[in-house]
Amino acid sequence: MAHLHKGRGYVYSIQYHIVWCVKYRHKILTGDIEHKLIDILYEIAKEQGVNVLSLQVNLDHVHILIDASPQVYIPNLVKALKGVSARRLFQAFAELKTRLWGGHLWNPSYFVASVGNNVEEKVRQYILSQKERS
Q1: Phi, psi dihedral angles at 68 (to 5 degrees)
Q2: Over the stretch 46-99, which tens digit does the pLDDT of each residue have?
Q3: Phi, psi of 112 (to 5 degrees)
Q4: What's the DSSP call for residue 118?
Q5: Residue 72 to residue 130: CA distance in whole angstroms
Q6: N or C, which terminus of the chain has less Cβ within 10 Å?
């Protein structure tokens, strides 16, 4: 399941599993908000030049598995994913700001792990299994 890509003078395969949570773990990522967030995250990933391999929006957190080039700086990517998605969700759903103290959508921290090809499918299945049923 290797995703080999060629750059100028190099070949690479780099995947990252990234997870972040809603501020105060409020369970607000449902229905139209969930669907809009999924669309937004795919748009941001494309804008940032990364490929989404797996994505799961849970009630209060997001799991995403991406395929990236060596030039992608993960802190900047996460900043874009979280910052741009928050801005776009607040524009689409103004009532979100009233449901979150201080008007912040995301917790400032996040989890990231590089994923080797031998475990990529396991991580993909783990992400897909994380959906909580409401």
Answers
A1: -135, 160
A2: 999 999 999 999 999 999 999 999 999 999 999 999 999 999 999 999 888 888
A3: -145, 140
A4: T
A5: 26
A6: C
